[in-house]
Design goal:
39% of the residues lie in helices and 11% in strands. By secondary structure, the chain is of the alpha/beta class. It folds into 2 domains: 3-19 and 92-226, Rossmann fold (3-Layer(aba) Sandwich), CATH 3.40.50; 21-85. A 6-stranded parallel β-sheet has the order 3-2-1-4-5-6, sandwiched between helices. The longest helix has 16 residues, at 21-36. The radius of gyration is 17 Å and the shape is globular. The N and C termini lie close together (9 Å). The model has no long low-confidence stretch (mean pLDDT 92).
Length: 227
């Protein structure tokens, strides 16, 4: 499917537009330490990357047998810590902002589809400059955004990408998804979409085994015209 025949480009956020994994793991680590008196490690969160914060935090709570874990309370505290520690530090990944802008210049409908919740999505986009001057999330950059709270099933199910395509009025088979995770690639393929995979998070062997259409290091390595 040459890009000129595509209608939309759908972007994941973490690992695609910005690398927030260290920051959200650190926020989770500090939350578990502060709220539960439990010392967890960054690597404890790795199996749950890309699955949304419910699983990201809940999986670690299960590992350590934290019976007092409360998803809504503990997630809210994690987000508060995250929003504070990313200020002036969270940056866009190489080529990410330029790639989104070029897609817009070429006339493609663009969407953001992230398994994370609205609070983290807006904080991250604001910090890397993908908001309009009035602060509207994705304003001027994305025709639609979908976060993990807006779908019944998160990745690796296809729900979030199908909803993103619906919101921008594009047929799934005429959309590209830009992803960095194994679960995200599986979700894109399940939605019947083409997938551009980045090597920003997972080992190349795991990414290629997931079956994306194109594999590159990051978005500085390609322009929309080259798909």
């Amino acid at each position: 499917m040459p890009l000129e025949k595509a209608e939309g480009v759908i972007f994941d956020m973490d690992g695609v537009l910005t690398d927030s994994e260290w920051f959200i793991a650190e926020a989770g680590r500090l939350m578990f330490q502060e709220t539960h008196g439990t010392e967890v490690r960054h690597e404890d969160f790795l199996p749950f990357v890309g699955l949304g914060e419910n699983r990201f935090l809940g999986g670690v709570a299960e590992k350590y047998g934290i019976a007092a874990f409360d998803i809504e309370r503990d997630k809210a505290r994690t987000y508060a810590i995250y929003t504070d520690i990313i200020k002036g530090k969270l940056k866009p990944l190489p080529g990410a902002v330029e790639f989104v802008r070029r897609c817009r210049e070429l006339g493609f409908k663009t969407a953001l589809a992230t398994s994370t919740d609205y609070v983290k999505m807006t904080a991250s986009l604001r910090e890397i400059g993908l908001t309009d001057e009035g602060g509207e999330t994705g304003g001027g950059f994305f025709d639609a955004t979908v976060n993990g709270l807006e779908v019944a099933r998160r990745k690796p199910f296809s729900d979030i990408f199908l909803e993103a395509a619906r919101r921008i009025g594009a047929a799934p088979e005429r959309c590209w998804v830009v992803e960095d995770s194994v679960g995200g690639i599986a979700a894109a393929k399940a939605a019947g979409m083409r997938c551009l995979a980045l090597l920003t998070t997972f080992p190349e062997a795991e990414i290629r085994q997931s079956g994306p259409d194109i594999v590159i290091r990051d978005l500085s390595c390609i322009g929309p015209e080259e798909l």
